[in-house]
Hints:
This protein is an alpha/beta fold. It is built from nine helices and twelve strands. It has a five-stranded mixed sheet with strand order 3-2-1-4-7. Strands 10-9-8-11-12 form a five-stranded mixed sheet, with helices on one face. α1 packs across α2 and α5 packs antiparallel against α7. The protein is globular. The structure holds zinc ion. The site of zinc ion (ZN) has 6 residues, from loops.
Amino acid sequence: MNRIGIDLGGTKIEGILTDENYQSITRKRIPTNQDEGYNSILKSITNLIQELVKESNNKVSIGVCTPGALSLSSGLIKNSNTQCLIGKDLQNDLKNILHYNVSIENDANCFALAEAKLGAGKNSNLVFGVIMGTGVGGGIIINGKIHHGRTNIAGEWGHHCLHNDGNSCYCGNKGCVETYISGPALEKQWSQISGLNQSLPEIIQNHDNPNFGSWKKLFLDNFALSLSNVVDILDPDMIILGGGLSNIDFLYDEGKNAVYDKVFSDMVNTPIVKNELGDSGGVFGACLLESY
Ligand SMILES: [Zn+2]
């Protein structure tokens, strides 16, 4: 059986066709066109899947990696930062158009699954995968399987409350992790501290700026507080960072030590490592989902 994985991102939709050993046969990438709404996204995904099916010389399984989680009660997408997907029944809509069963999983779970089985966490039993980019998310993999939890909310670390009465979040709560250590949140903090409107890569380059130290300290404090909570509860064998912010080198030494300082244990050595699959975590995670 060949496998098709689709990664539905905020700006691009990527599709991959692999053989049964997850070796790439073909790969395609198209823009998401979020402004054109849900029906346009649905059409783009179905076209992409149909093209990949045509190129397969074997039966296929199909998995889709999407921002947001599926509500266990309704099957509809919730908590998505691609907001036109919220309340939509993407899984059934795809099934009705394609006449194939399609597995759907949120992007953080797909990332964590891909890294745990094919990437940096290959020999670890309990992996916590973190996405830090435009949004912040997390996924828990136990013995090679996604841990969904009772109501499919396990690992939703981005909306864990970090500061009581803190920053307002689109989810309706205040103080969520995502409002402190996502790319946009960090750019906003930099602008407030330095008066400069710069992108995150520009800020990192600007490390000689006199305000850089206080920005970085705030960032590391929030990074450490949010991840040390995870270590205290899960005590994972490995934490793997993904998303754009995973390219920030100081997270793997100063960031890691800051986490260790806050963990409730006299012995902490949890590896905090960079992903190995890069941008491909989503499509490979989608390939790894079982069709049902
Ligand atoms: Zn939130």
